[in-house]
Structures are given as structure tokens and as C-alpha cells.
Specification:
CATH architecture: Alpha-Beta Complex
Distance between the termini: 35 Å
CATH class: Alpha Beta
Largest sheet: 6 strands, antiparallel
Mean pLDDT: 96
CATH superfamily: Creatinase/methionine aminopeptidase superfamily
Number of strands: 13
CATH topology: Creatine Amidinohydrolase
């Protein structure tokens, strides 16, 4: 990632369409999450929804340098899985789990990216507090995504929101710019200092995401080369929105009724 790509009004309108589609896919998956459902079942729901919306998965076949292509349209994170969990028939959702779903789609060449962590039935008080703190920190961070502010203003809200509850944020992965490419400049870390970093400008579009662990921030990669889990086995949650920085402040492009639940 290098050059910041400023979007014009027409491009942002196109990204609203892809953002709405990504939110619709996420909502369909969320409605299906229940005890006994496998993450492979959720993957099929995603594929059906993407086809119905005449969209293209941003994840399926995504291939970083010197890496195997990603084999699914969603990433599924159950309990201690932080990010990039691959859907599989053997991964079955249980009562009390928390299930993070990350999905992105492309329409007319522009991407929309979002994530949400769903509670399954009655979850523990600790898990409830984790989800609330993670989600709240994301919205606090989005409020800082306005012209004249800096990346550090966003990142510090993500970090402080988690740490004020005794949790930790990931330091080795971050949010990112988004547009014609799923990942563009700039990086949007989950840690930062207010008033520092790149200055924000109208027309920037960011995928702002927060990844919060109950325990330490240390993570490990599983043998599949994709799945990232907490190193200490503690719970983890993630939430993400695609956000356009406009002259009058931030606009969430992946807004959905899902987020009002």
C-alpha cells in the first residue's frame, strides 16, 4: 500500500452500493447463526446472497504475495479465533459462542467491507462486555474520521475503548483504505496516539476495524496459513465498517439495520 486514493462523488456513490450489498450479506448470515449450524453452512448462505445481489466476493481467491489464495467468501471467527478463520463443516456453532463474520463484496469494481461479532443465545457476562466494548470503540473511532483529524485520532479511540475495559487490541493487523482495491493506503492501526499520523482529507474511504482480545494481544497462526487465534486462548471480537470521509464528516457506507440490534 502506498499512494492515498481520493474518491470523487461518483466513486463514493458506487461504494455506497457495494457497501450496502456487503451489509446485506452480513445480515443474512447473522440471521442464520444458531446452535448446530456449521460455518460451511454460513459460507453457502454468503455465496447465495452474493449471487442474488449480482456482486462479486472480494475474499474468494484473494492472494497476498507468496501465499495460497483464500478459499471462501467469508472469514469466520468463533470464540478465540481473531480473524481469517476458514469456513468448514467441522466448525459447528454452539450455544454461548461468539461468532465473528467478516465479508466484503465488489460491485462495478468498488469494494465494501464489514464485520460483526454475533452472540449465540445466552453468552457469558464477560463475552457481553467484550462485544459491547469492541462495538462502542468502533463507533467512537468512526466519529473521529473527519477532515483535519489524523489517523491517530481514529486509532487511539480503538485502543482506549478496549483498554479502558481491561482488554487488549491487536497490534499486528489493522484496518485499511479501500476502493477499487480491497486493501489500499493508508493503514488504520488499532493502536495510536491522538493528533499523530496521516492527516485525513475529504474523499478518503477507510475500512475501520477493531479486533479486541479479552486477554493478551499476542496471536498465533494455525497450520492452514490463514486462521489467526489468540495465543492464550482468550475470547476475541471484531467489528468493521467501510467509512467515507466527507467534507462534513464521516459517512458509514456499510450501514445496516443489523447494527441497531
Amino acid at each position: 500500500m502506498d499512494k492515498i486514493r481520493i474518491k470523487n462523488k461518483i466513486e463514493i456513490e458506487k461504494m455506497k452500493r457495494s457497501g450496502k450489498a456487503a451489509a446485506t450479506v452480513l445480515k443474512r448470515i447473522g440471521e442464520a447463526i444458531a446452535p448446530g449450524v456449521s460455518t460451511a453452512d454460513l459460507e453457502q448462505i454468503s455465496r447465495d446472497a452474493i449471487a442474488e445481489l449480482n456482486a462479486t466476493s472480494s475474499f474468494l481467491g484473494y492472494q497476498p504475495p507468496e501465499h495460497e489464495p483464500y478459499p471462501a467468501t467469508i472469514c469466520t471467527s468463533i470464540n478465540d479465533v481473531v480473524i481469517h478463520g476458514i469456513p468448514d463443516e467441522s466448525h459447528v456453532v454452539k450455544e454461548g459462542d461468539i461468532v465473528g463474520i467478516d465479508t466484503a463484496v465488489s460491485i462495478e469494481g468498488y469494494h465494501g467491507d464489514n464485520a460483526y461479532t454475533f452472540p449465540v443465545g445466552d453468552i457469558s457476562p464477560l463475552a457481553k462486555r467484550l462485544l459491547e466494548a469492541t462495538r462502542n470503540s468502533l463507533y467512537d473511532a468512526i466519529a473521529e474520521a473527519k477532515p483535519g483529524n489524523r489517523i491517530g485520532d481514529i486509532s487511539s479511540k480503538l485502543q482506549n475503548g478496549a483498554e479502558s475495559e481491561g482488554f487488549s487490541v491487536l497490534q499486528s493487523f489493522s484496518g485499511h483504505g479501500i476502493g477499487r482495491n480491497l486493501h489500499e493506503a493508508p493503514e488504520v492501526p488499532c493502536i495510536g496516539v491522538a493528533g499523530r499520523g496521516l492527516r485525513l482529507r475529504p474523499g478518503m474511504v477507510l475500512a475501520i476495524e477493531t479486533m479486541v482480545n479479552v486477554g493478551l494481544s499476542d496471536v498465533q497462526m494455525l497450520a492452514d496459513g490463514w486462521t489467526i487465534t489468540t495465543a492464550d486462548g482468550s475470547l476475541s471480537a471484531l467489528f468493521e465498517h467501510t467509512v467515507a470521509i466527507l467534507s462534513d464528516g464521516p459517512e458509514i457506507l456499510t450501514g445496516s439495520a443489523l447494527w441497531d440490534l
